[in-house]
Write a structure and sequence with these properties.
This protein is mainly alpha-helical and 163 residues long. The protein contains five helices and no strands. It has two domains: 70 residues; 76 residues, no CATH class.
């Protein structure tokens, strides 16, 4: 049985490798770039690259935590551990939520769909404090909507709220 520290090393390495694959192979081969895009944020490959860079940073942090654990804690005493069945069910639920989210965007719009899915994923992850759940699930999608709509000038679908 692998220790949580070993899992951090495996997961961190896998996430960094996946991000590098996206940056170096998938995005360059899968995104068609039109000529003459003056604003970098409007280039079709800009946001996918940002996502891959953030993914690489997150993977590097997990990898770093596996290499250099904080404090003097033992791997055996790291709190609650999920069984393989529960962890697999949570993973399958999260993947299903992403597919439901994808299809809900056209009907409910990106803001409402994001609020609902974000709330569900935070609950799935174990967060139970309403003072964290509700503001995060509402404020984050609204702020991102305003950023993309008014700063980056990228129209986002509003679903049934489209006028």
């Amino acid at each position: 049985m692998l220790t949580p520290r070993a899992w951090d090393l495996i997961i961190g390495s896998g996430v960094v490798a996946l991000a590098l694959l996206g940056l170096l192979a998938i995005i360059p081969s899968g995104v068609v770039l039109p000529g003459g895009v003056e604003i970098a944020a409007l280039s079709p490959d800009f946001w996918p690259q940002i996502v891959m860079i953030c993914l690489a940073i997150a993977g590097a942090i997990v990898l770093f935590q596996g290499m250099f654990p904080a404090g003097n804690r033992d791997d055996e005493d790291e709190g609650e551990s999920l069984s393989f069945g529960v962890a697999s069910l949570k993973l399958a639920t999260a993947i299903l939520a992403v597919f439901v989210y994808y299809f809900a965007i056209t009907h409910l719009g990106i803001v409402v769909s994001s609020c609902v899915v974000l709330l569900g994923l935070m609950l799935l992850g174990g967060e139970r404090r309403l003072k964290i759940l509700l503001p995060t699930a509402v404020i984050l999608p609204v702020l991102l909507y305003y950023f993309f709509t008014y700063v980056a000038n990228v129209p986002l679908p509003l679903g049934m709220f489209q006028s």
